[in-house]
Design a protein that fits this description.
With 114 residues, the chain is mainly α. The chain has a single domain, classed as Cytochrome c-like domain (Cytochrome Bc1 Complex, Chain D, domain 2), CATH 1.10.760. The longest helix is centred in the N-terminal third of the chain and has 47 residues. The radius of gyration is 22 Å and the shape is globular. About 11% of the residues have low confidence.
Amino acid sequence: MKLDLGISASVASLLLVSTLYAHCLARNAFQVASRKSSTRGAPVFRKSCAVCHSVRAGETKVGPSLYGVLRQGSGHSERAVRQTIAAGTANMPAFQGKLEPDQMDDLIEYLKTL
């Protein structure tokens, strides 16, 4: 009976370690994908947004700086920012149809890094 408990404990430990390792791999893969996406988003920003928006804190061009726009506590949600980019505002053109869905995703990931 002691042998069975020892084997069960070993198997349980192995399963726990395997689960934690898999979680770490998945998290790392997500972070790498986000970094790649944000790297692809920088050129999208330069082409479509930089004419009117700065990435420097407090610097206003035609539109406000987008520095920190998607940081926690900024008061802006990813959903609201996506909607604004897609539909535009009274002072900003709409980019729906001008940006591919993957470009929008990349741009959002880039904005998260500011």
